[in-house]
Amino acid sequence: MAAKLKKGDEVIVLTGKDKGKKGTIQSLSPKDNKAVVEGVKMAIRHTKATQGSQGGRISKEMPIDLSNLSLLDKNGKATRVGFRMEDGNKVRFAKTTGDVI
Predict the structure, then answer these.
(1) CA 31-63-60 angle, 5° bins
(2) pTM of the predicted structure, to 2 decimals
């Protein structure tokens, strides 16, 4: 099945404590149906100091389920993703505007 969301896409969070936050997808794991979005679902990790790095509390993005994300269209609104054929190539398009992503 083709991926509706890809690395580098601009998305908005639909549900949860980070509802309404926007960010870009940094990494995607389709097998787990999760994505890591920049600045969303932050967790604090306590790390011990090692010879190469300083210890302390480090903020880190945690994976969020793909069903809680929606792609942003050119107007900055949440949109669903559709697929169509153009010039023999399968392309993604925003359902709200009809523009190719």
Answers:
(1) 145
(2) 0.83
Quick check: 22 and 4 in contact, CB under 8 A? no
* Strand duo 69-72 + 78-79: pairing: antiparallel
Q: What is the pLDDT of residue 90?
A: 93
Tens digit of each residue's pLDDT (9 = 90 or more) over 6-35: 999 999 999 999 999 999 999 999 999 999
Residue 42, both tokens: 């932050």
Distances (CA, A) of 57 to 29, 38, 49: 26, 18, 11
| Cα 81 to Cα 70: distance, rounded to the nearest angstrom | 9
